[in-house]
Amino acid sequence: MSTLPPQPLSPLDGRYRAAVADLGDTLSEAGLNKARVHVEVEWLLYLTDHSLFGSTPLGAENQDALRAFARDFGQTEIDTLATIEARTRHDVKAVEYLVREKLSQLGLDSIAELTHFACTSEDINNLSYGITVREAVQGTWLPRLRQVIAELRRQAEEYRELPMLARTHGQPATPTTLGKELAVFVYRLERQCEQIEAAEYLGKFSGATGTFAAHIAADAAVDWPAASEEFVTSLGLTWNPLTTQIESHDWQAELYARISHTNRILHNLATDIWTYISIGYFRQIPVEGATGSSTMPHKVNPIRFENAEANLELSCAILDSLAATLVTSRMQRDLTDSSAQRNIGVGFGHSMLALDNILRGLGEIDAAPELLAADLDGNWEVLGEAIQTVIRAEVTAGRSSIQDPYAALKELTRGKRIGAADLAAFVEGLEIGADARARLLALTPASYVGLASELLGYLPAVAAE
Q1: Beta carbons within 8 Å of 444's beta carbon, 6+ residues apart
Q2: Mean pLDDT to the nearest integer, 308-327
Q3: Nearest CA to 30 among 76, 86, 93?
Q4: Active site residue 169
Q5: How confident is the model at residue 326 (pLDDT cuts 50, 70, 90)?
Q6: Which one of 70, 138, 156, 159 is at 20 to 30 Å from 40 when CA atoms are compared?
Q7: Are the CB atoms for 270 and 312 separated by under 8 Å?
Q8: Which residues contact 215 (CB under 8 A, 6 or more apart)?
Q9: Which of 2, 169, 339, 401 is an active site residue?
Q10: What range does the record give for the signal peptide (predicted)?
Q11: In the prediction, which pLDDT does 414 show?
Q12: Which of these, 23, 257, 254, 260, lies nearest to 135 by C-alpha position?
């Protein structure tokens, strides 16, 4: 028998709660139930606003009271719902009864039968998920991603002219600038932001098998598809006219695939920054009072980026699974999506935690210009590319008759460390024009960065607040 009080099973609700707490307002069970109440109330108001089945529009006071009931959904309603669901054994039916209780408190029992009118549970659920996921993405997840991008953009600008030895395949390669390399990630992430911001959140509202059968049975004179579209779009969602009992979840699969892709770009960022730290291009700024190692006092470990890697992998595992499985439902309905969708918040939570760690990690590093410069000065052989390219241009222009300049530079540089004097002597002996020779003799690894700095001009403009 455990002596511990009840404990959160997930670290997202325990150790890392502070980093992901904002998602709880939307992607928790309580957040889902709050959205369900909102949908039930708005449907009831839609029916009465249109005076269907002999009803009349509610007065402003009652409308405000019902909307406040949905808006202010809190612990009292959570507890009441738990009590009702213990009896109904059905979560959406419990929400319906909760709304009916509120109507009774307001003296509106006469319209109680319009609660959940002609709805299947999935009519309420799919709209509620559309609302909660949209709010989580637009109100919580995207703003945090934007913070990461803003910090990356700031550092890209700060280091846009700071030369850095590139390391393609981990080997010394044509130099770049630290700022340009960070700008690559800004550009990649901005593209994903643009796609995610344009995502559609679909909703259906057409009854037990998507046919409006119960609606027509109740009143065949109403244009129910038009009413359904008007209601769904009033909630800020895109209407899906052709469904089974469930909304087909394709929009969710598309969204989660994009977020997983974004996670993977962030994972690439985390591994690159980790590597730059390991070779000394970035210094870590010690945090007062923090311990890097329990036994090695000198250490400052890149834990922010390591934590981010793990959480991005977990997020992708969950979101990839959701994207793959939610698009399949046996014939008109099965319940596999019910349990799966309850883990949406977990997928987003691990991504949020990773974003938090990356943002904090970026704030705890600083470039090491002296080490970057020393690394460049120790790898003059990277100028071999420039020299053989210039020779080719000179041959084409008729100012040189050198045969196979690539082979000549390969012989000089491959697998070797050569210095400025070695390259200068080689260039002096080349059969090339005087201007070309002067350009090559002026080159250093630190100056051989092409248009790296200017390329930052291709970054998208900063998104409007």
Answers
A1: 376, 377, 380, 383, 420
A2: 96
A3: 76
A4: yes
A5: very high
A6: 138
A7: yes
A8: 118, 206, 207, 222, 224
A9: 169
A10: none
A11: 80
A12: 23
How do strand 202-203 and strand 238-239 relate by DSSP bridges?
parallel
Residues in the chain: 465
Alpha helix (H) residue ranges in 363-404: 369-377, 384-396
User: Above 80 in pLDDT, residue 416?
Assistant: no
Please state, in angstroms and rounded to a whole number, the distance separating the CA atoms of residues 117 and 216: 12
Out of 51, 110, 293, 447, pick the active-site residue.
293
Q: Which residues pair with 365 in a beta bridge?
A: 284
- Yes or no: say if 420 and 382 are a contact pair by the CB < 8 Å rule: no
Backbone angles phi, psi at 124, to 5 degrees: -75, -45
The pLDDT of residue 455: 96
The mean predicted confidence, pLDDT, of the chain is 93
Q: Tell me which DSSP letter residue 365 carries.
A: E
Asked if pLDDT for residue 289 goes beyond 70, the answer is no
What secondary structure does DSSP assign to 150-200, as a single string? HHHHHHHHHTTT-EEEE-GGGS-EEEEEHHHHHHHHHHHHHHHHHHHHT--
Q: Identify whether the C-beta of residue 322 lies closer than 8 Å to the C-beta of residue 252.
A: yes
Q: What are phi and psi of 175, to 5 degrees?
A: -60, 160
Q: How many Å apart are CA 408 and CA 402, to the nearest integer?
A: 9
Tell me which residue of 302, 444, 288, 298 sits closest to 373, measured CA to CA.
444
Residue recorded with tokens 């046996």:
330
How far apart, in Å, are the Cα atoms of 324 and each of 259, 319, 369? 14, 9, 46
| Matching residue, tokens 């030369």 | 163
Check if 293 is active-site: yes
312 in Cβ contact with 351 (< 8 Å) = yes
Asked if the model's pLDDT at residue 288 lies above 70, the reply is: no
What amino acid is encoded at 246 in this protein?
Answer: I
Residue 142, SS3?
helix
Rg, C-alpha atoms of the chain: 31
> Global pTM?
0.93
Amino acid identity, residue 229?
E
Q: What pLDDT is attached to residue 4?
A: 85
**Is residue 288 classed as helix, strand or coil in its secondary structure?**
coil
- 436 closest CA partner among 401, 404, 389, 403: 389
Domains of the chain: 11-119 (1.10.275.10), 122-288+297-368 (1.20.200.10), 378-442 (1.10.40.30)
Which of 26-40, 123-137, 328-342 shows the lowest per-residue confidence on average (mean pLDDT)? 328-342
Surface-to-core class of residue 56, CB atoms within 10 Å of its CB (0-12 exposed, 13-18 middle, 19+ buried): exposed
Residue 297 has pLDDT above 60, yes or no: no
